[in-house]
Design brief:
This protein has 193 residues and is an alpha+beta fold. 16% of the residues lie in helices and 56% in strands. It has a 9-stranded mixed β-barrel.
Length: 193
């Protein structure tokens, strides 16, 4: 059992290094978010996500994201599929492009679909909308690596009786995370020199 968790942790670490491409003046970031892969692996599944951030004007940026996860839950026995769409508005007070300290807000809509013998057709899906104030720190190291540490508090806008499987994911809660992003484009350019 420990070997399985170690292998999953190793795979998670390898895939948590997201790739991103960033313009020279740090006005936009496109990234592959693999935190969803870790959540999926934890629940016998998989996941993937993408995000795009663009500076609108000096210090203000917008960010959009799309993710998908499929998990095969054992207790109760069902398949959970989720699709999430996020929209962020971020402010960078140090005015260094899309780098260093940021404050902002996020709106997230999650669509959850269930399939299994214990699921009736009228209870086979949920939609959860949440708002989250954010604070975070992005730091670029050379032109290849970026670290993004963030935290916030999620407020569920439309509380309802969700299935027990997703109750932890859709209740009001403190959120935090660490993302490591690797610019594969810049890495390959360095190797080509």
């Amino acid at each position: 059992m420990q070997k399985r968790y170690f292998a999953a942790l190793l795979i998670f670490f390898a895939f948590s290094l997201s790739s991103f491409s960033q313009s020279q003046n740090k006005k936009q970031i496109f990234s592959l978010e693999t935190e969803y892969l870790a959540k999926g692996l934890k629940n016998n599944g998989w996941g993937i996500g993408f995000s795009y951030e663009r500076e609108l004007f000096h210090g203000m940026a917008v960010k959009g994201g799309l993710s998908h996860m499929t998990m095969w839950m054992k207790n109760p026995s069902l398949i959970l599929t989720s699709v999430e769409v996020t929209g962020d508005i971020l402010y960078y007070p140090f005015l260094r492009g899309l780098d260093w300290l940021y404050f902002g807000g996020q709106c997230k809509t999650g669509f959850f679909m269930y399939d299994g013998s214990s699921v009736s057709e009228e209870n086979s899906q949920d939609c959860v909308i949440s708002l989250c104030p954010l604070i975070g720190w992005k730091q670029s190291f050379v032109d290849i690596v970026m670290i993004d540490v963030f935290s916030g508090y999620r407020f569920v806008v439309n509380p309802q009786d969700q299935k027990g499987v997703i109750k932890d994911q859709v209740k009001n809660a403190f959120e935090y995370g660490l993302k490591v992003k690797i610019s594969l484009v810049n890495l390959f350019q360095l190797w080509g020199k």
